[in-house]
C-alpha cells in the first residue's frame, strides 16, 4: 500500500476546528494511525473461512512452486525456457502484455463514475483500481523474469535510453500507473477507515490523470511491438486500438466475476445494476475488438503479400508447421461464442454472462500470447520457421506469478471490503471478527 | 488462556512450515557457481563509454582473471578503439559464394562463441534462382557437395546499419554504433531483455541462453572488450566485423577463410580501397532496402553473367550457377557496368 500519510490528525470522523497541535505532531499521529491500519490489514488477511484459507493456501503453494522454478532459471539461464534466438519472446512477454490490458481496464469503471456520474458503479471503482494495482505488479514480475540479467536492473537508473527506446516509456508509464492507483485506492480506503470524507483535492486530479494514463500504458505497450520494422506482423497501426479494445473487454469481464465472488463471500452489497452496466461495457468493447481483428485479417489476407507469412502461419499453418492453428481458432471460437451470448435476448441471465466472461478472458489471453507475440517471430526476418513450445519450468514460473498476483488481489479485496462496509474502523479497538 | 496457547502453537507451526516452504523454494540458488554473480567491483562497473582509462584497465584485468578461471586460458584482453577517418564496409560477391559455410565456422572459432549450444553470427541461405524472397531460402541445406546447381547462396550477418533499429530500442544504451560504423554491445551492461533481437530485420543478434561453453583448446586468447571475449550468460552478442583484428589493420576471419574470394572488406572513406571501388563500379544492392536501415553490408554480382540476363521470378534458370564455375581471382573489380542481377535490391 502507499507510504504517504494523509495530513489528518485525530482518528475521529470530525476534525477539531482549531488544532493546537503542530504540523509535525499531526503528521506523526497520522503516520502512527496509518501504521496501525496497515498492521490490522496484515492480520486481517489471515482471517477468513475455510474456503478462503484453502484458496490462499493453494495460491501460496503455486506461488512457491513458481519461485522455485524461477530460482532454477536464475541459476541456469533462460535455457530453461522454450525460447530460442528465433522466437526470443514467449509466455512471459505474452502474459505481460495481457496483464497490461487488465490494468488499463480499470479506467472503464472510472470513466462512467467520474465523467458520467454513474452511481451504480461508484463503489466498484475501487475494486477496479485494486485489480490495476495487482495486474501491474504481475506485469513487473513478468518483465523481470524475462530478463537475462536481472542483477543489472539498476542499469536502468544509470543510462536510461529515454525517449528513444519504447521500453523506457513502458517502464515509466507502468510504474507511474502503479503509483497513481496505489495512491488513489490507498487514500480512499484509508479515508473510509478513518470514517471521514476524502478531500477531493487529494484524489480527483489523480483520478483524471489516471484515465489518460491507463490509455497510455496499453498504447505504449502496443508501440513496443508496432514500432519494429523487422516484424511486419506487428508493424500495424491497428495494434494499439486492438490492445485497448480487447483490454476493455477482458478487464471488466474479470471484474464481473470478482464482484459476484465478493457478493457471495462477504456482507458487501453490490448493486445489481452495476453488473448490467459492466455487461454493456464488455459487449461494446468485445464488438469493437472483433471488428478490428476483422479489419486486420482483411488487410493481411486480401492483400496477400509476402508480409502475410506470420498471419498465414497463425491461422492456417506454413510449410508444414501448424503449432498455433488450434490455439487461434479456439480463441476466435471463444470470443464469437461470448459475443453471441452477450447479444442474445435474455441478457439479464447472470450465468450466461459469467460463461461469456470466462470465454472472453481465455480467448483474449490466448490471442495475446499465441495470437500476437509468438507469430510475430514466425517466420524469422530471414524466413526461417522455428516453433515455440513453453517448457514446464517456464509454465511454472508463469503460474507462480499468476498465483502471486491473485494472492495480492485477494488480500487487497479481503481488507477493503470490511473497510467499505464499516466493519474495520479506525476508532474501534482490536480487529472485528469477520462474518 | 488455553485457547490462546493452542492458537499460538498453531500459528508457530504454520509460520515454521511457511518458512521451510520458502527455503525449499529458494533451494536451487545453492547451485549458483562462485563468480556467477558479479562481485562488488563488477557490480559497480560503469558503462563502457563512462569508464576512465584506469577503470578500463581494471575491467580488462577482471575479464582476464575470469577467462582464466572459467576456461583455463591466459588471454590478452585489449580495448581497441576506432580510428579517425575510418568507416568499415563489407561487400559480398554473390556470383562467387559457393555456400561452403567456412565463414560461419571461422567466425565461431575467432570470436569465442559458445560451442554448446553453438552460436553462429553468419547464416547462409540457399536461395532458389529467381528470387530474393528470404522465406524461400533454405537455412539447413545439407548436400554432400556445394554449390548446388539450381541455387545461389546468400550469407547474412550483422549489416552494421547506419540507421540501426536495434540500438534505438535498447533501454539501457548497452548497444551503440561506433564512429567507424561498427555496432557493438557492452556485454557487461546488457540486461538481456532481447528487445534488440526482436528489432533486427536481419536476425543478426544472438542471446546467451546459458553460460557459453568453449573447450579450453579452442579458446582464442586474443580478445577485446567490445568483440570476442567470452560473453557472460544472459546477454546479447553479435558480429563486430572482428574489430579486434580490423581496427589493427587486419581482415575479418570470415573473409580470410573464404576459398573463392567472395568477401571484400575495407575503409569506404579511403578512395583507393577495394570496397570503395566496388561500391562505385559494381551493381550493388542491400537487403531489405525498404526497411531504411542503411546497411554497411553490400551484395553484388559479377558483370560477366549479365549477358544471359538475371534470374526471372518464377522463370526457369537457363544458366549454370555462377558460383560453380568461378575460378579464384577472376572478374577483377571495376570491369564494366552491365550487371543485371542487382534487380532484387
Can you put this structure into words, describing what you see?
Chain A has a single domain, classed as Formate dehydrogenase/DMSO reductase fold. With 435 residues, chain A is mostly helical. In chain A, helix 2 packs antiparallel against helix 14 and helix 3 (91-104) packs across helix 13. Chain A is globular. Chain A contains 14 helices and no strands. Chain B contains 9 helices and 12 strands. The longest helix of chain B is centred in the N-terminal third of the chain and has 25 residues, at 2-26. Chain B is an alpha+beta fold. The interface between A and B is large, with 58 and 65 residues.
Topology diagram in text:
The complex is a heterodimer of chains A (435) and B (345).
Chain A: H1 23-44, H2 50-76, H3 91-104, H4 107-114, H5 125-146, H6 155-158, H7 166-194, H8 200-226, H9 239-265, H10 272-303, H11 309-315, H12 325-343, H13 350-373, H14 392-421
Helix pairs in contact in A: 2-14, 3-5, 3-8, 3-9, 3-13, 4-8, 5-7, 5-14, 7-8, 8-9, 9-10, 9-13, 10-12, 12-13
Chain B: H1 2-26, H2 40-44, H3 53-71, E1 76-78, E2 88-93, H4 102-110, E3 123-128, E4 151-156, H5 165-169, E5 175-177, E6 183-185, H6 195-199, E7 205-207, E8 222-224, E9 236-238, H7 243-246, H8 253-257, E10 263-267, H9 274-281, E11 284-285, E12 297-300
Parallel strand pairs in B: 1-8, 2-12
Antiparallel strand pairs in B: 2-10, 3-4, 5-6, 7-9, 11-12
Summarize the structure.
With 435 residues, chain A is an all-alpha fold.
From the N-terminal CA to the C-terminal CA of chain B, the straight-line distance is 87 Å
Secondary structural class of chain B: alpha+beta
What's the total number of strands of chain A?
A: 0
Share in β-strands of chain A: under 5%
Biggest β-sheet strands, sense, barrel of chain B: 4 strands, mixed
- The 3D shape of chain B can be described as elongated
Quaternary structure type: heterodimer
* Mean of all residue-level pLDDT scores of chain B: 88
Task: Tell me the domain tally of chain A.
Answer: 1
Q: Tell me, what is the CATH class of chain A?
A: Mainly Alpha
- Output the helix-strand order of chain A: HHHHHHHHHHHHHH
Spans of chain A of at least 5 consecutive residues whose pLDDT stays below 50 are: 1-16, 428-435
Amino acid at each position: 500500500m502507499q507510504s504517504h500519510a494523509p495530513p489528518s490528525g485525530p482518528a475521529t470522523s470530525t476534525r477539531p476546528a482549531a488544532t493546537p497541535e503542530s504540523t509535525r505532531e499531526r503528521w506523526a499521529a497520522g503516520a502512527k494511525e496509518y501504521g496501525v491500519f496497515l498492521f490490522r490489514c496484515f492480520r486481517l488477511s489471515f482471517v477468513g473461512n475455510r474456503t478462503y484459507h484453502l484458496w490462499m493456501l493453494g495460491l501460496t503453494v503455486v506461488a512457491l512452486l513458481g519461485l522455485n522454478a524461477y530460482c532454477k532459471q536464475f541459476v541456469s539461464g533462460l535455457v530453461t525456457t522454450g525460447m530460442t534466438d528465433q522466437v526470443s519472446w514467449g509466455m512471459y512477454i505474452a502474459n505481460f502484455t495481457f496483464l497490461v490490458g487488465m490494468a488499463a481496464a480499470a479506467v472503464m469503471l472510472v470513466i462512467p463514475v467520474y465523467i458520467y456520474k454513474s452511481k451504480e458503479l461508484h463503489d466498484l471503482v475501487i475494486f477496479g483500481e485494486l485489480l490495476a494495482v495487482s495486474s501491474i505488479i504481475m506485469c513487473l514480475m513478468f518483465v523481470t523474469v524475462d530478463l537475462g540479467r536481472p542483477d543489472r536492473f539498476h542499469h536502468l537508473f544509470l543510462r536510461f535510453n529515454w525517449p528513444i527506446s519504447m521500453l523506457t516509456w513502458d517502464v515509466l508509464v507502468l510504474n507511474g500507473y502503479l503509483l497513481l492507483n496505489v495512491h488513489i485506492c490507498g487514500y480512499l480506503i484509508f479515508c473510509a477507515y478513518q470514517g471521514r470524507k476524502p478531500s477531493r483535492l487529494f484524489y480527483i486530479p489523480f483520478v483524471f490523470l489516471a484515465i489518460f494514463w491507463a490509455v497510455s500504458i496499453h498504447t505504449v505497450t502496443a508501440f513496443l511491438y508496432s514500432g519494429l520494422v523487422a516484424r511486419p506482423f506487428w508493424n500495424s497501426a491497428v495494434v494499439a486500438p486492438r490492445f485497448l479494445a480487447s483490454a476493455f473487454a477482458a478487464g471488466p469481464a474479470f471484474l464481473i466475476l470478482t464482484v459476484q465472488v465478493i457478493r457471495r463471500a462477504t456482507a458487501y452489497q453490490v448493486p445489481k445494476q452495476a453488473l448490467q452496466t459492466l455487461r454493456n461495457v464488455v459487449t461494446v468493447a468485445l464488438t469493437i475488438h472483433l471488428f478490428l481483428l476483422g479489419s486486420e485479417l482483411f488487410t493481411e489476407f486480401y492483400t496477400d503479400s509476402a508480409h502475410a507469412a506470420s498471419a498465414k502461419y497463425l491461422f492456417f499453418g506454413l510449410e508444414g508447421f501448424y503449432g498455433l492453428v488450434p490455439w487461434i481458432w479456439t480463441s476466435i471460437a471463444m470470443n464469437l461464442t461470448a459475443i453471441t451470448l452477450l447479444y442474445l435476448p435474455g441478457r439479464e441471465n447472470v450465468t450466461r454472462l459469467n460463461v461469456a466472461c470466462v470465454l472472453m478472458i481465455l480467448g483474449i489471453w490466448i490471442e495475446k500470447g499465441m495470437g500476437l507475440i509468438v507469430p510475430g517471430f514466425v517466420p524469422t526476418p530471414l524466413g526461417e520457421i522455428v516453433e515455440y513450445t513453453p517448457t514446464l519450468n517456464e509454465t511454472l514460473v508463469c503460474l507462480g506469478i499468476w498465483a502471486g498476483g491473485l494472492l495480492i488481489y485477494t488480500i487487497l479485496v479481503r481488507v477493503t471490503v470490511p473497510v467499505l462496509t464499516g466493519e474495520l474502523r479506525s476508532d474501534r479497538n482490536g480487529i472485528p471478527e469477520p462474518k | 488462556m488455553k485457547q490462546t496457547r493452542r492458537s499460538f502453537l498453531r500459528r508457530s507451526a504454520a509460520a515454521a512450515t511457511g518458512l521451510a516452504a520458502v527455503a525449499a523454494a529458494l533451494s536451487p540458488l545453492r547451485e549458483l557457481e562462485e563468480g556467477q554473480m558479479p562481485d562488488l567491483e563488477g557490480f559497480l562497473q560503469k558503462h563502457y563509454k563512462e569508464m576512465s582509462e584506469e577503470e578500463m584497465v581494471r575491467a580488462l584485468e577482471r575479464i582476464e582473471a575470469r577467462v582464466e578461471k572459467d576456461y583455463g586460458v591466459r588471454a590478452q584482453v585489449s580495448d581497441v578503439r576506432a580510428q579517425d577517418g575510418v568507416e568499415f564496409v563489407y561487400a559480398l560477391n554473390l556470383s562467387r559464394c559457393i555456400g561452403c559455410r567456412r565463414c560461419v565456422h571461422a567466425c565461431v572459432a575467432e570470436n569465442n562463441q559458445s560451442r554448446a549450444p553453438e552460436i553462429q553470427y553468419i547464416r547462409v541461405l540457399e536461395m532458389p534462382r529467381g528470387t530474393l524472397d528470404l522465406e524461400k531460402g533454405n537455412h539447413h541445406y545439407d548436400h554432400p557437395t556445394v554449390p548446388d546447381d539450381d541455387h545461389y547462396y546468400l550469407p547474412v550477418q550483422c549489416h552494421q546499419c547506419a540507421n540501426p533499429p536495434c540500438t534505438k530500442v535498447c533501454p539501457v544504451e548497452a548497444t551503440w554504433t561506433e564512429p567507424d560504423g561498427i555496432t557493438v554491445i557492452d556485454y557487461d551492461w546488457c540486461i538481456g531483455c532481447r528487445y534488440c533481437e526482436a528489432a533486427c530485420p536481419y536476425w543478426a543478434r544472438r542471446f546467451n541462453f546459458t553460460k557459453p561453453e568453449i573447450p579450453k583448446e579452442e579458446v582464442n586468447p586474443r580478445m577485446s572488450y567490445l568483440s570476442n571475449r567470452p560473453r557472460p550468460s544472459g546477454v546479447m552478442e553479435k558480429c563486430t566485423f572482428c574489430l579486434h583484428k580490423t581496427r589493427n589493420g587486419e581482415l575479418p576471419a570470415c573473409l580470410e577463410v573464404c576459398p573463392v574470394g567472395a568477401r571484400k572488406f575495407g575503409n569506404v572513406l579511403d578512395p583507393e580501397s577495394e570496397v570503395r571501388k566496388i561500391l562505385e563500379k559494381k551493381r550493388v544492392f542491400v537487403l531489405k532496402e525498404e526497411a531504411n536501415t542503411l546497411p554497411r553490408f553490400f551484395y553484388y554480382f559479377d558483370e560477366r553473367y549479365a549477358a544471359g540476363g538475371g534470374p526471372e521470378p518464377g522463370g526457369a534458370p537457363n544458366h549454370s550457377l555462377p558460383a560453380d564455375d568461378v575460378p579464384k581471382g577472376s572478374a577483377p573489380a571495376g570491369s564494366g557496368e552491365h550487371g543485371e542481377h542487382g534487380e532484387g535490391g
